[in-house]
């Protein structure tokens, strides 16, 4: 699988580290233990299009949000994580 880094161009996935689900948000500081337990340990395992967080450790060291089809491994989009988070806040 190859990822199109917005800073470095197309690179092999071996340059990146998969960091998990990009749609999970940290609970508020006042949330109880159950909310934090779910945040840390409970994850869905979706089949199909999913947004993931990746880190380009062997390149520009950027955090990226990758939209990928988990069934076919087709990469639909790659964008800097900051950009993805700010565009979601506008929705």
What does this 3D model show about the protein?
It is built from two helices and six strands. Strands 3-4-5-6 form a four-stranded antiparallel sheet. The protein has helices at residues 33-41, 81-89, and strands at residues 2-5, 9-12, 17-21, 49-55, 63-69, 75-80. With 91 residues, the chain is an alpha+beta fold. The longest helix is centred in the middle third of the chain and has 9 residues, at 33-41. The mean pLDDT is 89. The N and C termini lie far apart (31 Å).
Largest sheet, strands/sense/barrel = 4 strands, antiparallel
Helix count from the secondary structure assignment: 2
For the record, give the distance between the C-alpha atoms at the N and C termini, rounded to a whole number.
31 Å
Question: Strand tally, please?
Answer: 6
Amount of beta strand: 35-45%
SS-based structural class?
Answer: alpha+beta
* Rg estimate, integer Å: 14 Å
Helical content class: 10-25%
Order of strands, widest sheet? 3-4-5-6
Query: Mean pLDDT, nearest integer?
Result: 89
Uncertain segments are none
What coarse outline follows from CA principal-axis ratios?
A: globular
Order of helices and strands: EEEHEEEH
């Amino acid at each position: 699988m190859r990822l199109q880094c917005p800073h470095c161009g197309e690179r092999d996935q071996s340059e990146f580290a998969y960091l998990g689900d990009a749609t999970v948000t940290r609970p508020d500081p006042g949330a109880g233990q159950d909310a934090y337990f779910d945040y840390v340990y409970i994850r869905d395992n979706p089949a199909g299009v999913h947004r993931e967080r990746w880190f380009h450790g062997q390149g520009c060291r950027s955090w990226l949000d990758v939209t990928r089809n988990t069934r076919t491994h087709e990469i639909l989009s790659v964008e800097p994580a900051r950009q993805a988070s700010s565009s979601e806040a506008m929705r």
